[in-house]
Write a structure and sequence with these properties.
The chain has 219 residues and is mainly α. The chain has one domain. The protein is built from twelve helices and four strands, in the order αααααααβαααβαββα. The strands form two sheets. Strands 1-2 form a two-stranded parallel ribbon. Strands 3-4 form a two-stranded antiparallel ribbon. α5 runs antiparallel to α6. The longest helix is centred in the middle third of the chain and has 25 residues. It starts with 18 loop residues before the first helix and ends with a helix.
């Protein structure tokens, strides 16, 4: 996730490559990259982040380490089956699938916007540091206090990158106590800001910012 690792994709994160790297990719590699970052892929986070990324992929990559991923998938199927048998298909779709799609679609976007926002900056290995990665490459997502509560303070992601040992319920306290943390780069859940974030495609070192498809093809 850190900005020296521009072409990695851990569970719940989205790969970022430089403009030069993208233009030299083969057709298949580029298609995978585009699909992974596509807005519809993010919207269907229930399938691509939870089912595939957190359960199937993690278990297949390391079965011994991620037995819990298989267990989560099994419990998910068992729960869904139980709802169908006990309450019927309507309850399954409206009480299980639809809420999961909405919640995990929003969750997938929150993961995405943590590192993919218009003012994000990245550095190569020589210029990388924890502070720059936290305050330059990780966003502070502005939300109401209610939304911060519902999302477990995930909006304070930049603080998590500086010190992952701070419990989520103390992140607001750290934010208020340290002025430098309040100067982090920001994003939000406003529709216009979401559109701007979703348009971003690659990192352009020459411009010092992320760019979208239009700039990628005309630059």
């Amino acid at each position: 996730k850190h900005n020296s690792k521009l072409y990695t994709s851990s569970i719940g994160s989205y790969p970022i490559v430089t403009r030069e790297k993208y233009l030299t990719m083969g057709r298949g590699e580029r298609a995978v990259y585009d699909f992974t970052r596509h807005p519809l892929t993010i919207a269907f986070g229930y399938l691509f982040v939870f089912i595939y990324g957190m359960c199937v992929r993690s278990y297949m990559n390391n079965p011994d380490k991620h037995k819990d991923s298989l267990l989560a998938l099994i419990l998910h199927v068992v729960m869904g089956t139980a709802i169908v048998l006990l309450l019927g298909w309507t309850a399954f779709w409206l009480g299980f699938v639809v809420p999961a799609f909405i919640a995990l679609g929003l969750g997938a976007y929150l993961f995405y916007a943590q590192h993919n926002f218009p003012t994000a900056t990245f550095a190569d290995k020589d210029g990388w540091s924890y502070v720059n990665a936290a305050l330059g490459s990780s966003s502070y997502m502005k939300m109401s206090q209610v939304m911060h509560w519902f999302t477990g303070n995930i909006g304070y992601h930049h603080i998590h990158h500086l010190n992952a040992r701070i419990p989520f319920y103390r992140l607001p306290e750290a934010f208020e106590a340290i002025p430098e943390l309040q100067e982090a780069k920001t994003t939000s859940l406003m529709p216009g800001e979401i559109v701007r974030c979703l348009r971003l495609k690659v990192w352009d070192p020459q411009l010092g910012r992320m760019i979208g498809r239009r700039e990628l093809t005309t630059g």
